[in-house]
């Protein structure tokens, strides 16, 4: 049998203007890649994960329209309470990024979107890298502010409610390369376990990498207790020879022989010192160890399917 493979990066930084902070979701047998370019927010649809950069994108939010907000950071596409939402942080002026949302008017992720404004409970606060996930029968919202990660319950798709937990603050050496940063949370829920993967260190540095948090509580009430979270004291995914600054990831699945396999999608640079200007989109399969924790290995240029 001939083994099939794909070559990273799956979207070189030369093919679209902005390839940072990739977010991919699988739906209906297709892969939807949501990202922000310099003129708007886009979504592409592809039948395979490794071909997400080869299909015509649809602009769902245009910065050039009258009254439109510019420079959306890290938009993510999520299906929440029966509708598609894009969560991101546009610039409301003077680099004041605030978590906001777009809502699709139909069932097709490539449909028409309506701007819904700022996430209630976070109004006028500088906030970026928001993500949502469902766990313990509750929708949760996690975001970044002042290089820390925060967590709160959601009150519907467009608001947070109740107490807010500072989920993590930079403390280890791997989180302080260039500057101390925790940002870009992404959730993995598997076999009842919850993990938060996050980006650490200055996003312009070669040392940008991924860290891991594990929820060790028992119920939803424990989610907002600091002592119910365990941080791995080292990077779980980091630079290697020829791959620099791997970070800001999302997760999806690829079916092989009737079985879903787990994939990480992230950005990284091929040239040391490229900072934000060289970020390309990469993907590769990952696994779980006997304890149920995700194991990402090292960044790979050639990936066997």
Describe the structure.
By secondary structure, this protein is an all-beta fold. It has one domain (5-304): Glycosyl hydrolase domain, family 43 (Tachylectin-2, Chain A). It has no helices and 23 strands. A 4-stranded antiparallel beta sheet has the order 2-3-4-5, with no helix packed on it. A 4-stranded antiparallel beta sheet has the order 6-7-8-9, with no helix packed on it. A 4-stranded antiparallel beta sheet has the order 10-11-12-13, with no helix packed on it. The chain is globular, with a radius of gyration of 18 Å.
Secondary structure layout plus pairing:
Blueprint: E1 5-7, E2 23-27, E3 30-37, E4 40-46, E5 58-62, E6 70-80, E7 83-91, E8 100-104, E9 113-118, E10 128-135, E11 138-145, E12 148-154, E13 160-168, E14 182-190, E15 193-200, E16 209-215, E17 229-231, E18 244-256, E19 259-269, E20 280-285, E21 287-288, E22 294-295, E23 302-304
Antiparallel strand pairs: 1-23, 2-3, 3-4, 4-5, 6-7, 7-8, 8-9, 10-11, 11-12, 12-13, 14-15, 15-16, 16-17, 18-19, 19-20, 21-22
Gist of the model:
The chain is 0% helix and 51% strand.
Q: Please state roughly what percent of the residues sit in beta strands, choosing from under 5%, 5-15%, 15-25%, 25-35%, 35-45% or over 45%.
A: over 45%
Helix percent reads under 10%
Full CATH superfamily name? Glycosyl hydrolase domain, family 43
Largest sheet: 4 strands, antiparallel
For the termini, the CA-CA separation is 12 Å
- What is the string of helix and strand elements? EEEEEEEEEEEEEEEEEEEEEEE
CATH topology: Tachylectin-2, Chain A
């Amino acid at each position: 049998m001939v083994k099939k493979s794909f070559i990273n990066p799956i979207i070189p930084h030369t093919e679209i203007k902005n390839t940072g902070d990739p977010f991919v979701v699988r739906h209906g047998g297709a892969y939807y890649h949501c990202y922000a370019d310099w003129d708007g927010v886009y979504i592409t649809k592809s039948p395979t994960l490794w071909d997400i950069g080869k299909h015509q994108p649809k602009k769902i939010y245009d910065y050039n329209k009258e009254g439109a907000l510019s420079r959306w950071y890290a938009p993510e596409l999520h299906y929440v309470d029966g509708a598609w939402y894009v969560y991101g942080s546009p610039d409301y002026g003077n680099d004041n990024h605030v978590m906001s949302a777009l809502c699709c008017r139909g069932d097709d992720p490539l449909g028409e979107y309506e701007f819904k404004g700022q996430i209630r409970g976070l109004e006028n606060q500088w906030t970026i890298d928001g993500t949502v996930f469902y766990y313990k029968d509750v929708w949760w919202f996690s975001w970044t502010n002042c290089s820390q990660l925060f967590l709160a319950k959601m009150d519907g798709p467009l608001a947070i409610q109740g107490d807010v937990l500072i989920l993590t603050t930079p403390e280890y050496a791997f989180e302080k390369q260039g500057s101390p940063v925790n940002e870009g949370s992404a959730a993995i829920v598997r076999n009842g376990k919850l993990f938060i993967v996050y980006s650490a260190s200055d996003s312009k540095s070669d040392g940008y990498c991924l860290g891991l948090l594990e929820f060790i509580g028992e119920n939803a009430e424990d989610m907002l207790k600091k002592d119910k979270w365990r941080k791995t004291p080292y990077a779980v995914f980091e630079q290697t020879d020829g791959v620099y600054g791997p970070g800001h990831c999302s997760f999806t699945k690829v079916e092989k022989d009737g079985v879903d396999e787990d994939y990480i999608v992230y950005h990284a640079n091929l040239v040391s010192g490229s900072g934000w200007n060289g970020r390309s989109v990469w993907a590769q399969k990952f696994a779980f160890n006997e304890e149920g924790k995700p194991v990402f290995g090292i960044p790979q240029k050639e990936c066997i399917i």
